[in-house]
């Protein structure tokens, strides 16, 4: 009888742990924010800095204001690939070089597992509502500005 009780308690604990993990995958609405500029356009940008913040990204958000986006910041430049699992919004990803230059853009459909990758190593990816860049004539080669893209001189 004790073995059955122990197994039942273990099952309950496992279900509680799984439920807590599911609860953590809700939308991220309280990340740190900065302003970045695309010419005369200001973008209120949430920062996804940690592996967990980057993994959740814009998942489970039913909407996003047109002037907002999410900037994914990686520790090192690499070929970055994104997909749209549990993402409800159609988005455009801008893959961005260290100096703020857009390397390439990718339109991404909601809740699809297709992979969208940078054409060369980058440290930044900015996700905006789909069509935001196109409506403003922003294409690869356009340079964004803001704190993340400011080059700092290293002491010699």
Brief account:
With 156 residues, the protein is of the alpha+beta class. It has helices spanning 2-23, 51-56, 132-135; strands spanning 33-38, 41-48, 68-78, 81-82, 91-96, 102-108, 116-117, 122-129.
Polypeptide structure, described:
The chain is α+β, with helices and mostly antiparallel strands. Helix content is about 20%, strand content about 30%. It contains three helices and eight strands; from the N terminus they run αββαββββββα. The protein has a six-stranded mixed sheet. The protein is globular, with a radius of gyration of 19 Å.
Name the features.
156 residues; alpha+beta; six-stranded mixed β-sheet; two-stranded antiparallel ribbon; disordered N terminus
CA(first)-CA(last) distance: 72 Å
Largest sheet: 6 strands, mixed
Biggest sheet: strand arrangement = 1-2-3-8-5-6
Radius of gyration: 19 Å
What's the helix and strand layout?
Elements: H1 2-23, E1 33-38, E2 41-48, H2 51-56, E3 68-78, E4 81-82, E5 91-96, E6 102-108, E7 116-117, E8 122-129, H3 132-135
Parallel strand pairs: 2-3
Antiparallel strand pairs: 1-2, 3-8, 4-7, 5-6, 5-8
